[in-house]
Amino acid sequence: MLNEFEVKEIITDEEVLGQWSEVIHPKKEGKELQKIIGEMKATIRAKNLEYLTAPQIGYNKRVFCVKFGDNDIRTFVNASISNMAKMTIARETCYSIPEKRFIIPRYNMIELCYYTPLGDIQTCKLMGRSAWVAHHCVDHLDGSLTSDIGLEIDDMFDNATEEEREEVIKMYM
User: What is the pLDDT averaged over residues 14-40?
Assistant: First the structure.
């Protein structure tokens, strides 16, 4: 079934990605939603990605998929973060901003409230990297790119002493 879905190129145009994504109604817009999800999952599998948002493949809708393990790709529709705890500084890259790295404040625990593709309301608690990835995806849907809110880092940052890195992070925060 996935063979019928097109593998999409990832959009890197920050002006396009900087838009607030529209709510999609799973029951009213089910066919469109299934097409978006199919293309997202086909793209994740073909490009071996960890996550993907609908805006990254050209759909301005509040949908994202996250890969948990080898074959478990979960879909989150109209997701919002309802609770968060344990802030930390994460290192991130973004498929839409290739070859750049950032540090960004993230929470080690978030609770998501979302719709399933069939329109059922669910919540889940995510921890660690899964929480960071989901938060990154919600940022995308809100039109915020990692480059908007993160601090770009380079080899100088990595080669700095621990004290120097802490000083940079302190100034950033």
Answer: 96
Instruction: List CB contacts of 152: < 8 A, sequence separation 6 or more.
Output: 100, 101, 102
In contact, 19 and 60? CB cutoff 8 Å: yes
Amino acid identity, position 161: T
Q: Identify the pLDDT of residue 35.
A: 97
d(CA 11, CA 21): 14
What is the distance between the alpha carbons of residues 63 and 70, in angstroms, rounded to a whole number?
Answer: 21
Hey, how many other C-beta atoms are within 10 angstroms of the C-beta on 3?
Answer: 6
Q: How far apart are CA 43 and CA 68, in angstroms?
A: 15
Look up the pTM and report it: 0.91
* Residue 38 neighbours by CB distance under 10 Å: 16
Q: Which of 76, 94, 88 shows the shortest CA–CA distance to 144?
A: 94
pLDDT, tens digit, for every residue of 67-120?
998 889 999 999 999 999 999 999 999 999 998 999 999 999 999 999 999 999
Cβ contacts of 110-113, under 8 Å, gap ≥ 24 = 110/81, 110/83, 110/84, 110/134, 110/135, 111/81, 111/82, 111/83, 111/84, 112/76, 112/79, 112/80, 112/81, 112/82, 112/138, 113/79, 113/80, 113/82
40 neighbors 46 (Cβ within 8 angstroms): no
Instruction: Let me know how many helices (H) and strands (E) the chain has, helices first.
Output: 6, 6
